[in-house]
Amino acid sequence: MKIYTKNGDLGKTSLIGGKSLLKNNIRIEAYGGVDELNAWIGLLADIIGENRQISFLRYMQNQLFVIGSKLATPANCTFNAPDLPVDLIEKLEVEIDFMDSFLTPLTNFILPGGHPLISNCHLARVVCRRVERNIVSLSEVEPVESQILAIINRFSDYLFILARYTSHKLNVEEIVWKAT
Q1: Is 150 exposed, middle or buried (CB count within 10 Å of its CB: 0-12, 13-18, 19+)?
Q2: What is the pLDDT of residues 120-129, one digit of tens each?
Q3: Residue 127 φ/ψ, nearest 5 degrees
């Protein structure tokens, strides 16, 4: 099977089920953003260096793939994307609480940076927030499973805590925002 269809040459791509849309359609932005986020998560899993986090990030990559397939499937399509685990938000919260238990309470805004690994966590977090905004935009015009928004929202929280936890593990002082 060839990777190229030549439909993209005209600025179009196909959804699951065959419906063709322009590449700037909000549905394409939503699942394309999930794909981009998945790539960032792959990078984090490659460089994070802690087995618990590697395992969880790989798990989340699989869940992001499911989310992307759900977003790439129009409402009238007969394809049934795999189900997301009903306890996925709870799993995210367990991981957030685990990492947070090592951290001092946050009393200031912090800036991304301090170490390349920390910066990559923050880059993944802001991509996750953009994905969330795109999914909200899609949900204004077409139905989106409510669990998807909740998962993406909680995952951005996870990525923020992962950045803080990584600072702690690397013994890197967080960069405190100072109003000028």
Answers
A1: middle
A2: 999 999 999 9
A3: -65, -40
- Helix, strand, or coil here: 18? coil
d(CA 76, CA 65): 20
The residue whose two tokens read 């999930």 is 34
| Cα distances (angstroms) measured from residue 158 to each of 31, 89, 94, 121, 162 | 20, 10, 10, 10, 6
Instruction: Please report, as a single letter, which amino acid is at residue 167.
Output: S
- From the number of C-beta atoms within 10 Å of its C-beta (0-12, 13-18, 19+), residue 51 rates as exposed
- pLDDT tens for each residue of 6-25: 666 656 666 665 566 656 67
CATH class label, 11-176: mainly alpha
Domain boundaries, the chain: 11-176
What is the rounded distance in angstroms from the CA atom of residue 109 to the CA atom of residue 98?
21
pTM, two decimal places: 0.91
Question: Per this entry, what is the length of the chain?
Answer: 180
Question: Dihedral (C-alpha) 42, 20, 132, 43: value to the nearest 10 degrees?
Answer: 10
